[in-house]
Amino acid sequence: MPGPLSNLRETLELGGFSFENSRRNAVLAATGVSGPRPRKTGTTIVGVVYKGGIVLGADTRSTSGDTVSDKNCEKIHRFHDKIWCCGAGTAGDTEAVTGNIESQLELHRMATGKALRVVTAVTYLKRHLFKYQGNVSAACVLGGVDVTGPHLYCVYPHGSVDKLPYAAMGSGSLAAMALFETKYKADMTLEEAMALCTEAVKHGIDNDTGSGGNIDLMVITPEGHTHHRNIVKPNERKYKRNYHFPVGTTTVLSEKFTPLSSLVTVETEVQPTGAMEIG
Asked: Does the pLDDT at position 1 exceed 80?
């Protein structure tokens, strides 16, 4: 009679991967039940450390499967006046997570009475994401300036963190990173950093179907922030049609007119709650 040790030995000898789900999917497919289609999110978000602060950049396309649901959405979210975050992944997750962290940081600032640090925002964000083990689809490029200088981080959906001089995330990150690795240099001026981020997002838009729309930039300095909304519009339509159709263009098949006198009016009188007497 097999005992616990023999069962354990058999389990260890099997090893490798379990393909039970593959067999299950094949059985379901034979009965006409198809599995869910893979879905891809599309975004290009970037960040650069320059001599005086941080420049963040993002495209403005929001996709739902193969459909462009929003051509001009905002992907740069506020944590603090000098700490901002670009979000990639599921739009609802990024907005909910960044809004939650923004509230926690404000409570932390009021409780301590001290200026916020960028590492504090990173710690709150990565701890929140780590709790969900990647099930919250929010990949973030977080940048800010505090008393210790400018800082730029990549925060991944499962909670891991990278601190880098330049960063790119999202489905268009490969094209953007190729440009950064070619043209980035230390101690860039503000104009050079803005031009590099704009070109990097443009590379993501040109080479990734999930990225598109316009380009947003956020400049963060020790004095504050400057939001450049739609600083570049690479996908404007060249030919626009004005739709002015004269009356009668659409054929009317039938008409029905109901006079108001034939409608039944019901009047209901309700005693207000405040007029009730108990006794």
From this structure: no
Confidence of residue 277 (pLDDT cuts 50, 70, 90): very low
| pTM (predicted TM-score) | 0.74
Whole-angstrom distance, CA of residue 71 vs CA of residue 215: 11
Identify the active-site residue in 31, 41, 43, 90.
43
Q: Catalytic site residue 189?
A: no
Helix (H) or strand (E) holding 85: strand 83-89
Q: Give CA–CA dist 179/192, Å, rounded.
A: 13
**Which segment of 39-43, 74-78, 195-199 scores lowest on mean pLDDT?**
39-43
Report the share of the chain in percent with pLDDT over 70. 84
Q: Where are the domains of the chain?
A: 57-232
Which DSSP category does 273 fall into?
Answer: G
Give the span between the Cα atoms of 199 and 57, in whole angstroms. 10
Higher pLDDT, residue 5 or 157: 157
- Going by C-beta distance under 8 Å and a sequence separation of 6 or more, which residues neighbour residue 167? 46, 47, 48, 141, 152, 153, 154
Q: Identify which of 170, 188, 190, 225 has the alpha carbon closest to the alpha carbon of residue 46.
A: 170
CB neighbours of residue 58 within 10 Å: 31
- Domain range 57-232, its CATH number among 3.60.20.10, 3.40.1400.10, 3.40.50.2020, 3.40.50.300: 3.60.20.10
